[in-house]
Amino acid sequence: MKAVIFDLDNTLFDHTGSATHAIRSWIPELGGTTTDELVAQWFVIEDRVYSRFLALEITHQGQRRGRLREFLPLLDHPVPPTDEELDELFTGYLHHYKSSWTAYPDARPALEVARSNGLRIGVLTNGSTQQQNAKLEAIGLADLVDVVCTTESLGVSKPAPETYLRTCEALGTEPIDTSMIGDNLELDVLAPRALGLTAHHLDRAAGVTLTDLVS
């Protein structure tokens, strides 16, 4: 192997933990009462609307507005009539989300092992370029990453073959010399394997850690 590509959200970065903290903290500020059902619905809506951004049907900011339009009625909160007002409202959630950005404990050790083994390190993530780079900086991993490829920078999302091939190209490696690690079996394992990459499933629920897969 000459390089390893990591997914970001729920692989290196604890998106679910950060988002759960954020929505639980934000709902009372909107006049609602936090419940497990409302938290679950936030993620259901996120998955549904975010998929439109990944398909490049709407912008990253557009998916934020779409999520609010679906979620606010669940709180009996009025939906602001303009995009500008929706954007302003969403900053409340973002404040809590950003304040809780956290790397998994095994993230930096895994990247350091990869670096010590002489591997170039890439991150391939279905997200916005600005936010995903900001996450890497905030959680203290940016200095160990050589290449970051995102939906916005590539103009296409995983599992499109171009995402993996162009990330390999950016790293200066061939697929056969590159491995990928991520939490999503389809996007981070099966799709890259079909292109010749070696890929490993980070199944945290089964007790697998990043250091298990890198060392």
UniProtKB/TrEMBL annotation:
GO terms for molecular function: hydrolase activity. One of its GO terms (biological process) is small molecule metabolic process. This is HAD family hydrolase. InterPro entries: HAD-like_hydrolase, HAD-like_sf, HAD-SF_hydro_IA, HAD_sf. Its cofactor is Mg(2+). Keywords: Hydrolase, Magnesium. The keyword Hydrolase applies. PANTHER family: 5-AMINO-6-(5-PHOSPHO-D-RIBITYLAMINO)URACIL PHOSPHATASE YIGB, N-ACYLNEURAMINATE-9-PHOSPHATASE. Pfam families: Hydrolase (PF00702).
